[in-house]
Amino acid sequence: MGNKNIEKMIMKYLIIVTVLVLSVLNASSILKVIAIVLGAFSNIFLAMLVAYVVNIIMVKIEEYLSRRETKIMTKVKRPVSLLLSLFVVIIIICLLIMLVVPATLDSLNMLMAEMPKYFQKIQVFLLAIFENNASVTKAIDLLEIDWKLLLQNIISILGGGVSSTLDTFLNVLGTVVGSLFNWVLILVFSIYILLDKERFIRMYERLTTLYMKSEKKRKLDMVLKVIHQTFSSFIRGQCIEAVILGTLCATGMFILRMPYPVMIGTLVGAINIIPIIGAYIGGAIGAVLVFTVNPPLAIGFLIYLVLLQQFESNVIYPKVVGSSVGLPGIYVLGSVMVFGALAGIPGMFFGIPTVASIYKLTNMYLANKEKKSAGTSLNSVLEEKIDPTIGK
User: Fold this and answer.
1) For 49-83, how does the pLDDT look when each residue is reduced to its tens digit (9 = 90+)?
2) R_g over Cα of the chain
3) Of 32-36, 152-156, 188-192, 218-222, which gets the smallest average pLDDT?
4) Which of 154, 217, 326, 384, by CA, is between 20 and 30 Å from 142?
5) Helix 278-293 and helix 295-311: axis angle, to 10°?
6) Where are the alpha helices (DSSP H) in 67-145?
């Protein structure tokens, strides 16, 4: 018996080593296959993400409708709450587009119209500086820009030439139609997930009950609840904080008599959903828009936004998001840098709750180790940290 066990162990390790060696030798091929598989499932992952975000709103509406429990309400509670949740999301997206897009196009048109005037002012400024240098002033005087030709060249470059305008239009149209079709499929799939989410929960319960020991299942349930609590708290916190920052930005711009207060406030708030750098991206775009109306006022806007961002980072963010996620500032910055480098803006967004989940679970594990002498189990440590209302 002893020899058989040793042989089994040797075979197991040989298989593991062989698989690892083959994986290293064929790493490029394996990575290509993984990329293809992830690409094939990308729409499903997006649908799951959409369903998860909408579910945060849907659960709250269901809780409200459950207070008026009747036979009819019991039957229609889920579809009604789902429709209301989707309606809320669509209304928010439409409002953002209506507030941001028209004003942005107007400001771009104004910028193109005012650009020659700004160029002339810069010429006058440079002539005043180099008035004692005849060669430089002569070069500045001779410097002229044909703005219509420049705009035509830009359009030609972007479109690939006048002769290919129709091809470019058809390519863009095809891309837009394809994207819309994909998003319709994603939305439909997410609706199916939300309407029948209990089926997936029951499947998880059956599989974990059949193939896992009860103690391991309890630990896994607790870990998943911690992750869910962290991600849902982070998403809610980011949305609330974005609304607060956008409102403060618009209010301050109204008081300071700056142009486009509602549009820029909405833009700054919406882009601020991207952690840490979002407000600065929105501020840069806002400064360009203010510049088109009043160039000196753009500097005042940047100063105001930097002060507002400092207030938001040190007062609002810790209260709204930090307290719920429970991640120290240095970890927040580190997670944004690392996950941003790995996956861009989506990495920045998902990095903070991912690191926060790991941080919480690590602290709970260490707390369990420290409390073992007192007879406290990991489950009791986890239960102390979990909101009992989550997991719906």
Assistant:
1) 888 888 888 888 888 877 776 777 677 788 888 88
2) 28
3) 152-156
4) 154
5) 160
6) 71-129, 134-142
Q: Are 105 and 93 spatial neighbours (Cβ–Cβ below 8 Å)?
A: no
Residue type, 366: L
Query: Which pLDDT value is given to residue 127?
Result: 67
Rounded to an integer, what distance in angstroms lies between the CA atom of residue 243 and that of residue 385? 28
- Would you state the pLDDT for residue 361? 85
Q: What is the C-alpha separation between 198 and 196, in angstroms, rounded?
A: 6
> What CA–CA distance (Å, rounded) separates 378 from 363?
11
Residue 183 has what pLDDT? 82
0.85 exceeded by pTM: no
Separation of alpha carbons 238 and 251, rounded Å: 20
Q: In terms of Cα–Cα distance, which of 368, 261, 243 is closest to 304?
A: 261
Q: Residues 95, 98, 104, CA angle at the centre, nearest 5°?
A: 130
